[in-house]
Amino acid sequence: VFFALLIIGHVVHAYGVRIILIISGLWMLIAIAAITWVTSPVYFLLFNMTIGGSISAFNTAITAQAIAMEKELKRSYLPKMSGFFAVGTLATTLLAGIAAKFTSVQIHAGVISAISVFLLLYIVKELNVILIPANKSDAARDAVRFAQFFTSFKIDWVVNLGLLFGSLLAFSAGDWASIYTREELGLSKSLAVIPFFIFTIGIIAGQLEYARFEKKYSMVGLVKWGGVIGGVGMAIGVVTGRWLSDYFLWGGVAVASVGFLIGGLGCSFIGSIFVSQATKRSKLPASVVIAQLNSVNTLIVFVAKTIVSLTAQLTSVTVALLVPCVMLLFVGAFLR
After folding, report:
1. Is 78:293 a contact under the CB 8 Å cutoff?
2. 156 φ, ψ (degrees, to nearest 5)
3. Cα–Cα distance between 253 and 177 in angstroms, integer?
4. Could you give the CA distance from residue 158 to residue 245 in angstroms, rounded to a whole number?
5. How do residues 86-127 score in pLDDT, each as one tens digit?
6. What pLDDT score does 186 carry?
7. Are the C-beta atoms of residues 265 and 230 closer than 8 Å to each other?
8. How far is 56 from 15, CA to CA, in rounded Å?
9. What Rg value do the Cα atoms of the chain yield, rounded?
10. Taking the model in full, what pTM does it have?
């Protein structure tokens, strides 16, 4: 994923969004369907690597397109796009849970991938008029020079750290929410997903409603107070829920779920804002900036997630979840 991100920003800028969406999208869907039939660990690893690369390419291209639309519309669009992405993630997760009871993972992945291929080609065709075109001069000159991928690499630590502080809560919730509910609160495995489901609802609501928020409040204020309210709310919910569950299980689950909802709302749009700001602070093309930002973020998020995991191992999952909550409190310091 890291090496794909180093390259793909230049490729998107040179050859346009349309071709990247088609190639990366087709391979991603075909590989996801095929990997369910793979039995060799080596081939499974190779398929996973290529899927990761294709997802990175697709994400870079579609995010660059969203940034271009923000400039055209003169208002935020990336948070809304991220919200619809979260809706799709939630819907496919629920669909997968239902389909698992009636069919095999091979058939499920194959059917969904086949349908998605046709939808992808149709949507790209319909959007072709507004998609970022190829930059023929760059394509002919230096976009495919290997050294170009490294000599133009820039790290904006203010934005990267802001993105880390603002997004780690979402990563940690995805990794630890179900474990927290099961081990700390004592809920059954089948119901342990409830707080994360509610957290995702909070993220979706915050992202889809961001356009309304930005009409009333400044961007800096939204990031600052979103971080404070989200971090404090989730921390109180996690700690109080853990304490209350010893006396009243569902009371603890309810309190923790409210905390997860507030945390999801608080951090929902922060990542999109920092991505948008990164493109405004750099002279490089948006696709290159996005790819470079994501490549650095991939590494520092890995380190941060490792720290959260070690905290959970040495203390408890409750304490580990407080780490991203505290970080979220200070995200406003990176946006002035």
Report:
1. no
2. -100, 95
3. 11
4. 39
5. 888 888 878 877 877 788 888 988 999 999 999 999 999 998
6. 87
7. yes
8. 16
9. 21
10. 0.83
